[in-house]
Design a protein that fits this description.
mainly alpha, Four Helix Bundle (Hemerythrin (Met), subunit A)
């Protein structure tokens, strides 16, 4: 039986996962003080951390079974904060193109728990399948349902496009969350990105984050 003075694991192999949570909590703070652009930047940074945390962990070959299972669990728990709670928090703050605050009705507010529940179910199901694959020494080749981490590029991209065309993302934000919620739980096969694909995704996301950062400092 392993004996430690504290619970949990704190090696470098899990550092990016912890960093993702810290950045996401900062993003929630920005959302609550109505600074949507900084919140979106935090969302994208959390996405980058999540994209590479598994590869960083794989460099540490001497991890025991508990550490490997811990990595699976903590990653999904971090994801529900970074890609579940943070996008929902962003949805509570909305402006039209003129900068006027948009008040939320009951239907608008109801979308957020639906989105969070879909993300939670998706992540729990992922953990079950991932644990089975580890037990069989198999590697995942595809995802079932849209990975929740995809919102790290989808939501900022939609925001950037809306800003370019002088539209408010919050006019369609609830529709976007409904679409994402359905995509999380529908049993569609999404290929797991390889290293080159991940680099391409980062390259595609870089102009978006630069654009949003430009907007942050332009006013």
């Amino acid at each position: 039986m392993e004996s430690k003075p504290v619970v949990g694991y704190y090696g470098l192999w899990v550092a990016l996962t912890y960093l993702s949570v810290i950045v996401a909590i900062l993003g929630i703070h920005f959302a609550l003080i109505e600074n949507v652009r900084y919140a979106l930047v935090c969302l994208m940074i959390s996405g980058v951390c999540d994209m590479f945390d598994g590869r960083v962990a794989s460099l540490f070959k001497k991890r025991n079974t508990r550490e490997k299972h811990y990595g699976i669990q903590i990653d999904s728990l971090a994801d529900i904060i970074s890609f579940g709670v943070l996008p929902a928090a962003i949805g509570y703050v909305g402006y039209d193109p003129s900068g006027n605050f948009i008040s939320l009705g009951w239907f608008d507010t109801a979308i957020f728990p639906i989105y969070l529940m879909a993300a939670l179910i998706r992540l729990a199901y992922y953990n079950v399948i991932e644990t089975e694959l580890h037990g069989q020494n198999k590697k995942r080749t595809y995802y079932e349902g849209l990975p929740v981490t995809s919102v790290a590029i989808i939501i900022p991209l939609v925001y950037a496009l809306c800003h370019i065309f002088n539209k408010s993302i919050f006019g369609i934000y609830n529709i976007l969350l409904i679409f994402l919620s359905a995509a999380f739980v529908l049993k569609i096969r999404v290929p797991k990105p390889h290293a080159r694909t991940q680099i391409v995704l980062v390259a595609l996301g870089l102009p978006i984050i630069i654009y949003i950062l430009f907007l942050c400092f332009s006013k």
